[in-house]
């Protein structure tokens, strides 16, 4: 079974950038969709980016489109989320997840905290 671990969170000023990483263990990373979601203080979890198991272009939530870029590297069993032009409302815990499809995740990481504040 796959497991995933997120890293790269931290404190950044508004307008800054961060890159989050998602490292997977197991041998089936090539065959799963991988996505990122986040949960801000007092907010519901929001799915923000995903790449399907067949690859192709990522899909993004409107709230991050044009600012965030997701990629995956199957050889490294990893996925990344490049976040630019960060805003205070981007603050939250960011989670990586894998599953059969972008609408069906079965394994979640523990999350990494991102705080955008001056």
Architecture overview:
The protein is mainly β. It is built from no helices and 11 strands. The chain has strands at residues 3-7, 10-12, 18-25, 33-39, 46-52, 55-60, 68-73, 78-83, 92-101, 104-108, 112-116. The strands form 2 sheets. Strands 2, 4, 5, 6, 9, 10 and 11 form a 7-stranded mixed beta sheet that branches. Strand 4 and strand 5 (46-52) form a beta hairpin. The radius of gyration is 13 Å and the shape is globular. It starts with a strand and ends with a strand.
Quick summary:
By secondary structure, this protein is mainly β.
DSSP helix count?
A: 0
**What is the chains' assembly state?**
single chain
Shape: globular
Distance from first to last alpha carbon: 40 Å
Strand content bin: over 45%
Query: Gyration radius, to the nearest Å?
Result: 13 Å
The biggest beta sheet is recorded as:
7 strands, mixed
Write down the overall mean pLDDT. 96
Which structural category fits the helices and strands? mainly beta
Q: Assign a percent range to the helix content.
A: under 10%
* Strand elements, count: 11
- SSE pattern: EEEEEEEEEEE
Low-pLDDT stretches are none
List the helices and strands and how they pair.
Blueprint: E1 3-7, E2 10-12, E3 18-25, E4 33-39, E5 46-52, E6 55-60, E7 68-73, E8 78-83, E9 92-101, E10 104-108, E11 112-116
Parallel strand pairs: 2-11
Antiparallel strand pairs: 1-3, 3-8, 4-5, 4-9, 5-6, 7-8, 9-10, 9-11
């Amino acid at each position: 079974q796959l497991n995933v671990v997120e890293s790269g969170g931290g404190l950044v000023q508004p307008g800054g950038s961060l890159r989050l990483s998602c490292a997977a263990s197991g041998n089936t990373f090539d065959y799963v969709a991988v996505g990122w979601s986040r949960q801000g203080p007092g907010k519901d979890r929001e799915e923000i980016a995903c790449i399907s198991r067949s690859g192709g272009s990522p899909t993004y939530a409107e709230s991050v489109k044009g600012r965030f870029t997701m990629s995956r590297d199957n050889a490294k069993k990893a996925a990344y989320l490049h976040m630019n032009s960060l805003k205070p409302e981007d603050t939250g815990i960011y989670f990586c997840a894998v599953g059969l499809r972008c609408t069906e995740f079965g394994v979640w990481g523990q999350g990494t905290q991102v705080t955008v504040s001056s």
